[in-house]
Amino acid sequence: MAFAYLSTLMGGIVCMLLLDFRFRLFFWRDSASAALVTAAGIVFLLLWDAAGIAAGIFLRGSSEAMLGIELAPEMPLEEPFFLVFLVLCTMVLYTGSVRILERFGKERNT
Amino acid sequence: MRYALLSVAFLAIAVTVALILTRAGSSLRVKVNMPAVLVAGTALMVLTAVFDTLMIALNLFTYSDALISGIRVGLAPVEDFAYPLATVILLPALWQFMTHHPHLKMSALLKHALIVSRPVSWINTAFPFGAAYFLATRDIDWLLVVGAIYYLIPYNLAMYGINDVFDYASDINNPRKGGLEGALLPPAYHRPMLWLCLVTNVPFLAVLFAAGSPESAIALAVSTFAVIAYSAAGLRFKERPFVDSLTSSTHFVSPAVVGLTLAGASFDSALLLMLGAFFCWGIAAHAFGAVQDIQPDREAGIGSVATVIGARSTVIFTIVMWGTAGILMLMTSWPGPLVAIVAVPYIVNAVPYLHVTDQDAGTTNKAWRRFIWLNYFSGFLVTLTMILWWMTVRG
Asked: Which GO terms describe its cellular component (chain B) (predicted)?
């Protein structure tokens, strides 16, 4: 039960990477750029979280679906994994939409 | 309402960066696919409404009721939607700029960044910070991890990145550069490298400044200033004799001082003696390294402690400094004096060059290479002594 949230996030991350791999969208298109975008996204979102925690806005929940390990006050171990998932999901959605819209545009032109 | 303010602030950062990237990209014909941003953004909003509600229902996290607006979509506070909105504005702009830049390859930039940051030297700044912080707090916490990561990579990238960009003109004439001891960076990568230094350093510095005290803020400011002032155009401390060695030593001692001040350590005489010894060691290390470059530096019109006082005097100066470091360590409390022995191999390594002339100063490169590996050996000895100290204090 304690692993529920973390394993769900990992599952989500793996699914995003599988989509990426299958359609060569992000890491499988330009791994260096993808790594930089991912790193930038995670740092940006972590700073946001940290500012929210420092301001007393975000509080860690008491759910039994989490391991209960805190990386920092009010920052559960699972949070960075969630941010990785959010970044990957955003980029797979964007690069995937670009691909679909381009194909759609081509079909209309022919 | 405070959460709304926070969300607007970070959203504004995302929009500003995206606009800057789009403007910079427009001259390079880099364009963000806006319809795709809309499609992805809409999908993300729907996903957020569903999964945020689910996550809040499962009590994975909560909010201070007094600080949020109270407007909710499902269970999700409306402010939460700023997260996916910011990522879908910022990240595609970044991605588009990186993948469609006509002259820049991110894989090449990363490869250059790795070489430029001198991985063999990473530990030389991360260790002083980590050891100082850990010995003062006796605890591994998030601040230790953030600071150690900062002093392991971004700090070194800034220190050597700025250096390699502004030294390009003189380095190109120096056969020694382009490997373990220095890297040659192609001019097309100069500006991107400076940007990479900036964006990798600022977030860490912001956190370290925010988490610390006025004392640690001063230490951080000195540390950061020394990194920039050493080689950036206009300041060029590396070309001012003696200021060059002092600044270089600050590069390695200041991470320890930042660690100590962040940990709120009290600066007693034993600690000051240790820092003084470390500082003398750093001055000697820099001055000794400058000897081998006397000829190329003079040809390039660059000054250094060695080009001004000459090879022989510099070697004498370094031996005196290493000796002073050893004597200062002898004056510290047990088991500090044990570390004094570390000065001996450095002095033995330099003594054969007491009669070196400016013409054959390049031959000291052999001793410089030994010096780099000697540092690992002395780092090991210093660590053992720290563990011994740790056990004495505890027992």
From this structure: membrane
Domains parsed from chain B with CATH numbers? 1-100 (no CATH), 117-394 (1.10.600)
DSSP B59-113: TSEEE-GGGS---EETTEEGGGGHHHHHHHHHHHHHHHHHHH-SS--HHHHHHHH
Q: What's the complex ipTM?
A: 0.95
Q: Kindly report, residue by residue over B79-112, the tens digit of the pLDDT.
A: 999 999 999 999 999 999 999 888 889 999 999 9
Written as one string, the DSSP assignment of A38-63 is HHHHHHHHHHHHHHHHHTT-EEE---
Pinpoint the alpha helices (H) of chain B. Answer: 2-26, 34-57, 82-100, 106-116, 122-137, 142-152, 154-166, 168-171, 190-211, 214-231, 243-262, 269-291, 294-299, 305-309, 311-330, 343-350, 365-394
User: CB-CB: which of A59, A78, A98 is closest to B36?
Assistant: A98
Q: What is the pLDDT of residue B175?
A: 62
- Contact: A90, B94; criterion CB under 8 Å: no
Please give the mean pLDDT across all residues of chain A. Answer: 94
Two structure tokens written together for B30: 């880099």
The mean predicted confidence, pLDDT, of chain B is 92
Do B59 and A62 make contact, defined as CB atoms within 8 angstroms?
yes
